[in-house]
Amino acid sequence: MLFLQLLANGLQVGAIYALTAAGFSLIFGSTKIFHFAHGATFAIAAYLFHFALAGLGLHWTFAVAVAAFSAVLFGVLLDRLMYAPIQRHEGSFFTVFVASFGIGIVVQNLLGSVFGRGFMSVATPLSNSVEVMPGLYLSPLNGLAIVSAIVCFAALHFFLTRTFVGKGLRALSENPELVRMFGLSPRRLSTYAFALGSLLVVPGAIFTAAGTGINPAVGHHVMLISLAATIVGGIGSLRGAACAGLLIGVAENLALWKLGTQWSEAMTFAILFFFIIFKPSGFFGRATVS
Amino acid sequence: MLRKTLFSITFAIGLASAVSVQADGIEIGAVFPLSGPNATYGDIFMSGAELAARHVNEDGVLTGDLNILYEDSQALPQQGVVAMNKLVNVEGVPYVLSAFTGVSKAISTLARRSQTVAVNGGGVGPDLAELGDYFWNVIPLANNEVGALARYAVEDLGHKRFTLVYVDDPLGESILNELEKTLPPLGAELVESHSIAASAQQFSGVAARVRSSNPDVVYVASYGSQQLQIVKQLRDNGVKARIASYSAFSVPELQAQAEAQGALFTTQSIDWDSEDPVTKRFVDDYRAEHNKNPTSYIANYYNAVRVFALLAQALEEQGKEITGANLLAQRKATDTFELVGGEVSFQENGTLLAPIQVLKVDGSGSGKVVSVKAAD
Question: Membrane-crossing residues (chain A) (predicted)?
Answer without folding.
Answer: 6-29, 36-54, 60-81, 93-116, 136-160, 189-210, 222-251, 263-284
